[in-house]
Amino acid sequence: MAVQLNTLVRGASEQVLPMPPFAAAVPDVRRRAGAVLAAWKVSPEIVEDALLVVSELLTNAIVHAVPPAVLRLSWIREAGLGTLRIEVTDAGPARTAGQPPAGIDPDEHGRGEEIVHALATRYGIEVRPGGITRWADLVAV
Fold it and tell me: What CA–CA distance (Å, rounded) separates 108 from 70?
């Protein structure tokens, strides 16, 4: 007996936002991401969390990775659920593992990954030749 799955996506949107390679650009890209989410009418219940995840992933790319960094937002509405995928792709680590960034106070940094994990329904890292993508999904009813 064969089972056929309905794989038609009811509504999908995607936006790519390049990230200038300096920390002061994070608030601007966050505002642009907020405008995109508003235009897509993303569920208000996840917008605030989504913008915090955007900030954390972008800051991680600026502090720890080689530019360029790119933010990709995807919003899929299907079967009454909305899933927002937030991806930040960079060119890979700027330092060897375990080497702290110069001039960074460890007491002021290092919690971003925990924040993303706490807010996201799913999250992960994809390593490809020439880049690393950190992603998080937030799901709204």
Answer: 24
